[in-house]
Each structure stands twice: as structure tokens, then as C-alpha cells.
Amino acid sequence: MTAIGDNDRRLEKYRRMQRIRQFETKAETIHAAGEIPGALHTYAGMEASGVGACMALRDDDYMVGTHRSHGHPIAKGSTLRPLMAELLGKATGVCKGKGGSMHLSDFSMGSLGETSIVGSGGPVAAGAALGAKLQGLDRVALCFFGDGASSEGAIHEGMNLAAVWKLPAIFVCENNRFGMSTPTSSAVAGANVADRAHGYGIPGVIVDGQDVDAVEDAVREAVDRARAGKGPTLIETKTYRYSDHAVNMGRDLTPRGPEHEEWVGRDPIALYRARLVSDGVAEADLAAIENAIADEVADALSFARESAYPTFEEAFDHVFVERLPIPADVAAHANLGA
Amino acid sequence: MARITFLEAIYQAQAEELERDPAVFMMGEDIRCNVFGTTTGFVERFGEERIRDTPISENGFIGAAGGAAMVGMRPIVDATLSSFLYPAMDQICSIIAKSRYIYGGQARLPLVIRSCMFYGNSNAAQHSDRPYPMFMNMPGLKIIAPSDAADMKGLLKAAIRDDDPVMCFEDGTCWMNKAEVPDDPDFVVPIGKGDIKREGTDITVIAIAGGVNVALKAAKQLQGEGISVEVIDPRTLVPLDRELILKSVRKTGRAICVDPANRTCSAASEIAATIVEEAFDALRSPVVRITTPDTHLPFSPHIEKPLYPSVERIVDAARRLVGAVQYQSA
Ligand SMILES: Cc1ncc(C[n+]2csc(CCOP(=O)(O)OP(=O)(O)O)c2C)c(N)n1
């Protein structure tokens, strides 16, 4: 694990939030231009939730994420080149061009998948926590999921399993107020997702998802508890997603009320920047970070653009440990097309 | 070598692999109390950490097996009856089958999902399924469906040692069948290799799981009528030993596929299509499927039993195929 001093740690949080925002701003632009295939679900507005949570983890801790997958790996410390290459479907992508925008999952950073079947990460996180326990390792497994996902059975089965077996798991519900177009209030019974923790006899914690320090503190407490063998915690980060369910769809799905401006006024990155400045961090230092990240993003994009696409044979890789045989007729026509 | 039952073979395979590899552990509903006798004494021998009773939560614990496998464990999940796999379709299909692929080979999921096909004993539609064809349609899952105790032991051991997810379908009609089984702890039957259970020259019968025993009885009867039947047991459905099947059909020129699953998109359908595609020139008669019709299984034994592949249906089909040839050549 990289040692980060107290001051550096704060700059690192700022750096990671900026990295997510700038990475996605670029991705959105090139997606609009047709350079990224498929759908693009952005994380803008939610950066403090992912970064705060991941900064409370060690590099060797596990993390399971969601279809809104750009923020989590960057928050956990992944580098941008393989992530951008994945968005473009290149062989150098973190998933070798097999996952794309919904599945940016970097196993080298402890990720065990950014799964796009809503709620399906819950049992995986419980299982990873069980694995760590059986291996006598003090690793924890953190599961991100949305308010929409909180109604899926898989999440509840995962939480129940983790609770009865006192597994070192942390369930972080990123409540961004909508599931696709449906407001949380009309899909989730009860005032808070975190209240459901009582049903499992585990702590349920609500935290301001726009405050990266507050999220980090809440998750750190849960991590300590998990490492001490006391079992899981459910944390709900109250946050907000700026964009529609997916961007560049040509149609607005998510109805926005007057609270939209209010939430945008509490942008997690702007809030944190102001806090750092009032704590005495020089504006020039922050500007330098922003510029350095702009360079990182540009570099990642050039890398992605220059990378090759996967070969057709790779479509048959990784179904199993050994490559599948390629049907002759399919191969013949694929080669014609290439 | 000792003569043991199919159930005893499951017990031995698990015990030996739990003994051999500390990464192997077991999870399932009520496995400590050992409902079917496949985990006798395991808690005492391997401890409660490695032999875990789970909540009734198939999607939860089967998915958790996926998570545990991703971090280096080798779980064996006992899902009791195959019908209970349906609540776990999400984790089996979306996570276990696809994670290796979707993350570009970063994930490895060495786990075994065991379940019994508990049909033919008046348990009605929700407890009588043979659902392996559904999973054959999902890439990323290896599937074994053995028919005798030796294959059961050897294949289950191979499955536990395999680095891919393996679904193990245990045919309840085979439970009490006995066979000579090697006690060598390294005896394994390779996944993906079929077996010729009986040699013959006139007709190839490719039979799945419990269908093999029915086919062997039919072959014996047909022998008395002067029809020589070769019985092939693929043992593994994914990957399927196509070569063994095609070689036999090229020799006999006739094929019957016996499959206890429902007819549409059954294993038999896949095998029949493969034969027609690859060995059409060798065929002297149509390829026939003997399956369970596309209906649910009723409770009443009177109407349940006749739905499954039977000796009579196989014998009839064999006579027809041979007769058809005589008719053509006349
Ligand atoms: C099992 C399943 N059902 C439906 C969908 C379609 N879908 C994708 S994202 C989404 C909304 C999820 O809402 P939430 O969990 O709150 O996450 P958010 O998108 O707001 O970040 C839906 C319904 C899906 N991917 N998986």
C-alpha cells in the first residue's frame, strides 16, 4: 500500500475526484461524437461517495461495483489508460475490450467486477469476504450498489449471509435519488435504505455523500469493525447524479425537480476544493493537480486511440480457462470481413 | 477397488478433495445434518468453517461461492435439488458464467455447483426437474451428468480440481446403483471425455445420466432380437465429446438419443443436430430422440412414470430404425 501522509491524503482525495470528473467529461464528449460504442452511464455528482469509500480501503481489499463503473476503479486507484482503452473497445482495455463502459473492473486494484445486473454484486462481496475469512487474511470486501438495486433480492441475500456469518463486508448504497427514471421515494419503502440494516442486526449509517471526508470516516469505521471480526455494516451515501441514467440518449428520462439546482450547488468537488483552500492549501497547488490530470486524461485517450482492437479469436477467449474452438464457418466469414 | 453406491462415490470424492486441498470448502442448506448421506461426518472431520450450513438463500450462497472462488477458494456448493437452481439463475448466469469473460480473463472461478435431479418419485413439477439443457445454453459453465458410481467419483474430483465453474447434475435414479470404484485418491475421470458403456454395431444409443441405465437394459433386450446396440455415455455435456459420438454413428449408421430432460432444446436435440450436421453421409435412418415430452411432471405416479424415456420406447425406436433400413434396401 502506498503510504500517504495526512496532507497528501487530502490532496489524493481531491486528485481522485478530479480524475473521475475529467475522465468522464472527456468520455462524454467522445461518446457524443460516436467514438465510444454502447451506453455511457456517468458518475458525475457522486465522486465523493466512491472516493471517500475507497480511501478507507487498503489496496488489497476487495471491491464490487455497478454498471455506473467509471468512478469506482479510479477511486480505488486505477490508472486511466486501460480504463479509457476499454471504453473504446480496445485490446489494451482493462477487460480486453470485453466489458466496456458498464464493466470497468480492475482486478489488480482488488476489484471483483463492476456488474451491470443490478444488485448482483451483493452475494459476490459476501463470498469474497468469506474467502478472506477462511484464508485468515484481514481483507474486507466492499460492495457498491444503488438505491434502485437496494430492492433486489440478491443484495438482501448477500447482507443476510454476511451478517449471520459475521463476514468482513461493507455494503455501500449510493443513493443518487433515482433508479433510471424512478425516484427513490416511489421505489424504496421506508425513509432510508440504511434503516434496513436493523432487520439484519447490523449498523445502518447515513452519511452526506457530497462530503468526501464524512464518507471516508463512516466507511473507515465500518472497515475497522469488519477487520475486527464484528461483521458487516450498511452505509447509505446521500448523493445525486447530475446526468440522465445514461448520457447522449437523445431523450431525457429522469424527471428533475427544483432540488436539481440545490444539489448542483453542493458539488462534491467544489465543496472539497473550498474546504482545502480554507484549510490553507494554495490555489496554485490545486490548479496544478487539475492540469496534471488533464494531461493524464489526454494521454489515456491517445493511448486508447493508438491501441489495436482485439483480434476476432479473442471473442472465444475467457469463456473458460482454455480458449474455445472457433467454428470454421464463423471464422471464415469473420476473416472475410476483417 | 471397492463396490460402492453412487451416493458413496459423491461422499468419497468430496472427502478426498477436502483432505487434499485446504482451499476446498462446502456450503449448502442443511449439509451438516447430511440429508442425503454425501457429507457424513464432515463437520467433525473438517470443522464448521469448511462445512457451512447456509440460510435458505440460493442466489446468495451460490453467488457467494462465486465471490469466494474469485479470491482463491474452491467452493463446492450443494444446492440439494436441481429445482432450487432457479432462484439462483441470476448469480449462476450473470456472475458465475460470465465474470471471466466480461472482465477479459481477470477473474477465475473454480467452483462446483452440485444438485440432484430428483425425478420419477411423485414429487410433482416443482421438485422433479432435469434442467441441464438450460445451462448448456449458457457459455462459461462446464456440465457433468454421470450415470455410474465410478464416473461420479472421478468426474466430481475432476470438477473440484478444475479452474472453471462446473455444474454437477446427480441423477437420483442412479443413487443406489453400485459399481467398482478405484480408491486411488488421484483417480479422476477427465471432463469432456465420453465413454462407451457397451459396444455394438447396428445402432448407437447416446444416453444422458439416468438414461444410460435405461438404454443398457434396452440394449440387452435388443441383443436377444439380434440387434446390436452401442451405448455411449457422454458423461460431460459441456464440453461434449462430439468425436466419440460421431465415430460411433459413422460405424453403426443409426442413432437414438436418450435424454430424461424435456424434449425442446434438450441435450438430445443438440446431439441429434450435431450428428445430422457432421455425419449425415453415414446415416442409414433418421436420428431419433427419446425424451420427456414438453409437459410438467405430474404428482400421480400412474401418469408420471410413462413420461420418461423407457426401455420400451427405446426398443420400439430401435426396431423401427432397423426395419426402416430393411424396407429401404428391399
Ligand atoms: C436486474 C436488472 N434489472 C434492470 C436493469 C436495468 N437497469 C439498469 S440501471 C437501472 C437503475 C438502477 O438504479 P440504481 O441502482 O439506483 O443505480 P443508478 O443507475 O441510479 O446509479 C436499471 C433498472 C438491470 N441492469 N438489471
Task: State the gist of this model.
The complex is a heterodimer of chains A (338) and B (330). With 338 residues, chain A is α/β, with parallel strands linked by helices. Helix content of chain A is 42%, strand content 11%.
Q: What does this protein look like?
A:
The complex is a heterodimer of chains A (338) and B (330). Chain A has eleven helices and eight strands. By secondary structure, chain A is an alpha/beta fold. In chain A, the strands form two sheets. Chain A has a six-stranded parallel β-sheet with strand order 2-1-3-4-8-7, with helices on both faces. Chain A is globular. With 330 residues, chain B is an alpha/beta fold. In chain B, helix 2 links the parallel strand 2 and strand 3. At the A-B interface, strand 2, helix 5 and helix 6 of A face helix 3, helix 4 and helix 5 of B. Bound molecules: thiamine diphosphate (TPP).
Topology:
The complex is a heterodimer of chains A (338) and B (330).
Chain A: H1 6-32, H2 47-55, E1 62-66, H3 71-76, H4 80-87, E2 111-115, H5 121-134, E3 141-146, H6 153-164, E4 169-175, E5 178-179, E6 182-183, E7 204-208, H7 212-227, E8 233-238, H8 259-264, H9 268-278, H10 283-306, H11 328-337
Parallel strand pairs in A: 1-2, 1-3, 3-4, 4-8, 7-8
Antiparallel strand pairs in A: 5-6
Chain B: E1 2-5, H1 6-20, E2 24-28, H2 42-46, E3 51-53, H3 58-70, E4 74-81, H4 89-96, H5 99-102, E5 112-117, H6 132-136, E6 142-144, H7 149-161, E7 166-171, E8 178-181, E9 195-198, E10 203-207, H8 211-224, E11 229-233, E12 236-238, H9 242-252, E13 255-262, H10 267-279, E14 288-292, H11 301-304, H12 311-329
Helix pairs in contact in B: 1-7, 3-4, 8-12, 9-10
Thiamine diphosphate (TPP) is lined by residues 67-68, 116-118, 146-149, 176, 178-180, 241, 245 of chain A.
